[in-house]
Amino acid sequence: MKKFFSLLLTLALVLSLAACGGGNGGSDAGTTAPPPADSGSSDTQTPPPAEDVTITVAALASGYEEAYPGMWQEVCDAFTAETGVKVNLICDKNLEDVIGPSMQGGDFPDVIHLATGREKGLTEQFIKDRNIAELTDVLSMTIPGESAKVSDKIVGGFTDTSVTNPYGDGVTYLAPMFYSPCGLFYNAGLFEEKGWTVPTTWDEMWELAEKAQAEGSYLFTYPTTGYFDAFLYALMYSVGGADFFNKATTYAEGIWDTPEAQQCFDIIAKLASYTNPVTPAQANDQDFTQNQQLVLDNKALFMPNGTWIVGEMAEAPRAEGFKWGMTALPAAKAGGNGASYCWLEQAWIPAAAPNLDAAKQFVAFLYSDAACAIFAKGGAVQPVPGLTDNLEGDNKMFYAIYDNGADAAMGNFAAYNAVAGLGTVREVFLDPVNGLVNGSLTKDQWVSDVKAASDQMRANIMG
Asked: What is the pLDDT of residues 86-126, one digit of tens each?
């Protein structure tokens, strides 16, 4: 894991200098982000809450919550026991649908745990509207019940990326939460049975696609197009390294005309031709587990995903002899390194949160030893030193991916101001994959649309 953290720190520092930000972050309800807060070495004392304060925490019920039901409630109860602040918890798989209507009426939760990349793009919308409260001061707060500051408990580099600092101004707006190596998940038992070798290059991947087709299966599927964000980031990094990755994620002029970009487009288009054709119809936030089931049933060999998949599909039926396997995206050429994107979930506070001080206390508490231990029961790992030391089973294998030679990619496409007619990053770069699979969109049209949108994104980049 030392190599992993070293890779992340190096990459994060590069990204923080080269990129203006990613699909995250926001500030108050105005149109200009506030100046950076002083995040020096002095502690920010945790203010005592007002009497009878009750905060509302809205958290996505993801695969981690499924692996350990009641995980978030237990954390909330521990926070209340420590601080006296009561918590009203909203925890749902379709969190946007639950909290969206009330927020439209001006009733906001105090803390929201919801990452970017979701189909409804709620977090991205708050980012573009700059409606997320600044959290830089939380980093220097003393964790409730402990003597350590929040910054003492977060691995270096995790608060210096476009995932948490979307405007490139050194200000943190989103707290780094659960992180997961992302890659291609597969049935290792099937590979053992067939005597197949996991591909390390894309040429080997295409050869395996033909073998799978002869066996009546498909090479690939994906839960939703949103999962192509981690896939695309890792692909760009493996093809062109940090330089190409940074230029691409900041929409550098002419970047999509480079050989590296063309290789990325070609790989995704060819992969679409080897994708199980039922995938697009099920690639939504309601039916995505049916696509994941294709791998468990040996109807597709690989799917992009994160470590939460094990808990999410724990009760699902599976082929005889099924064993989870995970690999990095193949190298762009023989002898090169594969790449794995480090997926990072975020917790954030709406600028209009009614209990801002207590909300910040809650975010600080998320890095306490007590909270970390509870989250770990669900397999959720935070960027806190030492948490990976005691991993066992599948998680031990998953988190070793960087120690096994994969390059780590971390960061997002830069945030840009809303423009009439300009779609989100997901709509422009990722959603078209459905069209590539079902034949309603050509690669050339997709590339043309990406270039046109990228020009607008660059012209309206936040920072």
From this structure: 999 999 999 999 999 999 999 999 999 999 878 888 998 89
What pLDDT, on a 0 to 100 scale, did the predictor assign at position 192?
A: 97
Q: What stretch of H or E contains 65?
A: helix 63-67
In DSSP terms, which residues pair with 112 in a beta bridge? Answer: 58, 348
DSSP sequence for 388-447? TTT--HHHHHHHTTTTTTPEEE---PPPB---TT---HIIIIITHHHHHHHTSS-HHHHH
Give the burial class of 195: count Cβ atoms within 10 A of its Cβ; 0-12 exposed, 13-18 middle, 19 or more buried.
exposed
Give me the domains of the chain, ranges plus CATH numbers.
Answer: 2-180+343-396 (3.40.190.10), 182-341+417-459 (3.40.190.10)
Instruction: Find the helix or strand (DSSP H, E) in which 456 lies.
Output: helix 443-459
Q: What is the 3-state secondary structure (H, E, C) of 327-352?
A: ECECECCCCCCCEEEEEEEEEECECC
- pLDDT number for residue 343: 86
Q: State the Cα–Cα distance between residues 432 and 442, nearest whole angstrom.
A: 9
Q: Which residues of 422-441 are buried (b: 16+ CB within 10 A; e: fewer)?
A: bebbbebbbbbbbbbbeeeb
- 352 Cβ contact list (under 8 Å, min separation 6): 29, 106, 108, 131
User: Checking DSSP bridges between strand 111-113 and strand 54-60, what pairing results, if any?
Assistant: parallel
Tokens of 180: 């997961």
- Residue 284 has a CB neighbour count (10 Å cut-off) of 16
Rg (CA), the chain: 21
Q: Return the structure tokens found at 288.
A: 């995505």
Residues of the chain with pLDDT under 50: 1-42
Residues 6 or more apart in contact with residue 458 via CB below 8 angstroms: 250, 251, 252, 253, 416
Residue count of the chain: 463
Distance from C-alpha of 431 to C-alpha of 227, rounded to nearest angstrom: 10
Only one residue has tokens 């601080």, namely: 83
Residue 84: name the closest of 119, 128, 37, 49 by CA.
Answer: 49
| Distance from C-alpha of 248 to C-alpha of 127, rounded to nearest angstrom | 20
pLDDT, tens digit (0-9, with 9 covering 90-100), for 115-151: 987 888 899 889 988 999 999 999 999 999 999 999 9
Gap between the Cα atoms of 423 and 191, Å rounded: 40
d(C-alpha 51, C-alpha 85), whole Å:
8
Cα separation of 220 and 436, whole Å? 13
Q: What integer pLDDT is reported at residue 313 of this predicted model?
A: 96
Measured at the CA of 262, the angle between CA 459 and CA 432, to 5 degrees, comes to 70
Q: Can you tell me the distance from the alpha carbon of 353 to that of 133, in angstroms, rounded to the nearest whole number?
A: 8
Backbone angles phi, psi at 99, to 5 degrees: -95, -15
